[in-house]
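Morning!

As promised:
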Amino acid sequence: MKQRVVFLPEGVAVEVLPGTPLFRAAVLAGIEIKSSCGGKGSCGNCLVKVEEGKAEIKSTGKLSREKQEEGYVLSCQALVGDEGLRVMIPSESRLEEHRILYDRPENGEAEDDACLAPEGIPLCTQFKLALDPPSIDDNTSDLSRLRLALRREMGLNRPETEINISTSALKNLAGALREGDWKVTVILAHFQRYAEIVAIRAGHDDRTVYGLAIDIGTTTVAIYLVDLLTKKVVGQHGDFNRQARYGDDIISRIIYAAEEEQGLQELQFAVISTINDVVEELREKAAIPEEDIVQVVAAGNTTMTHLFLGITPRFIRLEPYISTVSTVPAVKAGTLGLKVHPEAWVNSFPQVASYLGGDIVSGILYTNLAHKDDIILFLDIGTNGEIILGNKDWMVGCACSAGPSFEGGGITFGMRAMSGAIERTVIDPVSLEAQVKTVNNARPLGICGSGLIDCLSSLKGAGIIDRVGSFQADLPTPRLRRGEGGWEYVLVWAKDSAGVGDIVITESDVKTLIRAKGAVYAGIRTLLRMLELDESVITKVIIAGGFGNYLHIHDAIRVGLLPDLEYHKFEFIGNSSLKGACLGLLSREALDEAEETARMITYLELSVGTTFMDEYVAALFLPHTDLTLFPSVESVENRI
Amino acid sequence: MKQRVVFLPEGVAVEVLPGTPLFRAAVLAGIEIKSSCGGKGSCGNCLVKVEEGKAEIKSTGKLSREKQEEGYVLSCQALVGDEGLRVMIPSESRLEEHRILYDRPENGEAEDDACLAPEGIPLCTQFKLALDPPSIDDNTSDLSRLRLALRREMGLNRPETEINISTSALKNLAGALREGDWKVTVILAHFQRYAEIVAIRAGHDDRTVYGLAIDIGTTTVAIYLVDLLTKKVVGQHGDFNRQARYGDDIISRIIYAAEEEQGLQELQFAVISTINDVVEELREKAAIPEEDIVQVVAAGNTTMTHLFLGITPRFIRLEPYISTVSTVPAVKAGTLGLKVHPEAWVNSFPQVASYLGGDIVSGILYTNLAHKDDIILFLDIGTNGEIILGNKDWMVGCACSAGPSFEGGGITFGMRAMSGAIERTVIDPVSLEAQVKTVNNARPLGICGSGLIDCLSSLKGAGIIDRVGSFQADLPTPRLRRGEGGWEYVLVWAKDSAGVGDIVITESDVKTLIRAKGAVYAGIRTLLRMLELDESVITKVIIAGGFGNYLHIHDAIRVGLLPDLEYHKFEFIGNSSLKGACLGLLSREALDEAEETARMITYLELSVGTTFMDEYVAALFLPHTDLTLFPSVESVENRI
């Protein structure tokens, strides 16, 4: 028999069967609880307090005895029993408390380069037509008349031989033509070999049509609202991907989608509803109705793209790591439940491989790499480090698992790059005292990914850690101490932190970071070795993604994350997946080119052969076993 | 406040607002009441008896006082008032009591020529593929792998450059490939320039795939269930078009669709549910599930095609008579609510003009007219007479309104060609006695369309009517008498009829028939005159439709309905719309050719100019004003 669970302080109630985890019951009640382990009971983020009734506890995980006695449980490990419950969800367990801006966390303003105007015709355009009214002598059907006028208007610019029409436009056609006295506005979607009349409106007016460029990130969703006639970005907004409640990382989500009943549908719904909420905010700000958004282009990694379309990502995770789609068929927005014009087409960027997805292809489009003579290295560093090397003639790519540390995961005081995150650390080599700078100069809460690289470099520079990341005992500073898990260095004392106690970085954190940076560098080296090239051929290193925005090149080279090249060769391009999606939205030719690019990239599976493993082991040093690869660092080391 | 109406004897109850006609309430209750006037109160078919409660009577129409006193009302004119009602629907008012077979009313057996095997590839085919399993070295996505195997399997026979995939097939893809151990069965729909993977099944088995060829007639719906692999018709079934409850003829239905709230949706639902019931019966007989029907091809007149797709036919009726579509976009069965595979494509035959529809184009395809050197006259005679004249180089066509008399409408004892319908009449010129033959040799109930032509010819031959159709008074037979509406001739005395009293044909009936046959003949003449040709160029007259099946050429010429040609030039081809639809289903090339044919036919609007009216007036004689056009009849006349 179903039991009633009331979530406090809202008082939202749901009825669920005995055996349902509280975490799932909360999802059903529409409340988002933090979780980063996918419900395994290991992350400890999903703490709730049972105030009335008794839950069945599968596991207490790392929960302290005190917390247990106060009534706290891990909501993923506490099951509804045979009585009703009243459950308090503390604010620290709630996902929505942690909202960040979507592109550049410190700054929500539209960027200057957000206005893109590529060559070519947008995926969807609008035509104002004035048709000759029919007569007894000129009695072709409405659709034939419209097609003729459309072909005439389009001239020979688009040689589509076939013009389809959506069902709803077809039903609306006769009425619209007559209501507008044979003047109509036609919304036309362009495909490679044909076009479709998506919608039709009576008469001519000043209304424009809009499209969405969407970057579907594992962590965040970022959207541009784009005027398809002026080719200008008229709004941008983003939010956390609501899938986070099913696990922080891709693997947790694949497991959830593959193994839970309705898991795939839940994950699809989570990302669609995230998008819908962002779009609603964009629409309200711009004061436009749903049906004026007539085209969508999405870029995401392979798993995100599969979940967005409701396709199982199950086999992405299982050897030999096969996705269902690489080139992705366009689908109607209505079938996905997107709150835009239901006949709008949704195009998704193509994937290269299971771990080299549409977000990277979109980024490559934005860099214009496919037209460059010079050899460029493209890096997108997050949980995975995705790497492309090439020029207009060839491209190779790979993905290396960096773990969640660059996004703040798995590190004692790791956090995302939001207010209060330490992004810069300076350690005096003599006093061994630390000074930190935080995002928004707020009181320190933790350390973000780029801050961790910076910190690693500072620790090494001050001689607190050695080349393999071991702490040097017996240094004359109270900041270096033995904690519960071994050696640690206090970056911020409790009195200066935002109530989180001493902010420390542990030896275990350092080793984790070395493994992460080593994986990325080994990926770069493996691509170069595959082609028998060395770093010197690289004329430019393009770094995409939020992580790159705060990275200090100097420190990243010094720890051996990035190759040792002149600083001017490095370029940060922000959310290139989003910007590339915008290019694809605004140019049919650009999107077609992206499909070509995806096919052109040779994917290197790093688990095949021994090259990557050799390179990885060699890279588990600061900066590297082979110091000749880091001449600028070597010279500094020698100086010290 | 809504009132409860209970229909007897079923006891089905519905709740409706006061003011709702009982006819509509019955529709809501799923009960089909006969009506042929579209709810105007003039046909008197929709009689019901109010047994409890009181209805508000708008009009009693032609209802006799006795009937009124017994509680009978016209259900279209009786509105629900402010109390509940119990209403008995007598069996004679029910539509389903009048079911007839769909193609040849006397014979439900499959015809010999129902098995068609045209050249070319069916619109949807099935491929059994064995894919190479993926590996680390061969890690393309499932869809790319499938496309590659499909292209290889198809060879160079179909040069589609693009292979799309339906959303549900895409979602099913990864599972099907692995469940079938990389053996799959792919259902592929073929379009002119691309193909679509409609569905995918794990493994290989003996299952086949089916398609439906549908003739959507104004009166009846006829369907072939076709095995798309063997190209054989494996079942055929038909039923009355349930739209009949909204009016017998096209114009009533257009008005209902255009002017009633939800009228269009009701009419669409009516035809879709008719089709669904027929398909269910076919499926049950063949023991196949819904999802094995993967393709649909429909042929219907322009209005039927619009209603089938849910497109308003409003403007078909209003000058200058413009339809929304001529070439009809394919739609998914799921969007129409057809109970077949929801991803199945539904193709509809193209229209030539508002009154020259896909049923005629389909018929022309079946005749192979577009490949003939000789000039052929194609006739489809029903409420409208649709006429095509031409050969492989040119075709002209027109539609003339014959009225409902050839289908038994508007004639005192007119009825459809079902059991008990008089199909043959012999009148002795001396005794003036009549002998009749009925369908199935049942006791006479009325006269069917072809029987009426025969009767007209017999009356003329016996000298009972003259060349303008006036009865000759003072003939020595009790069969000729003055009835309420003027002169009439008794074909069958009450004692010999099936309880319907004396079966008569009146002078008014005769005049109606002369107008009907005059319109058809004038249409033929107008086409010939437009091209400055005469009857002698016609090498063959092909007569389509149920009406033709019983027609006696001799009589049809004698009354001036058909041109006076040698009998061997006439050919009856039955339901050519259905057979042509089957050809289109089984051959992509044939369907493409039909689209070409529809564009090629020059449509002549008879209301323009005076030629048709001149010809019509000249044809209001038996057989014609100009007897030189009917030399064989003239010689007989002279002999008498």
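The mean pLDDT of chain A is 89.

Hope this helps with the figure draft.
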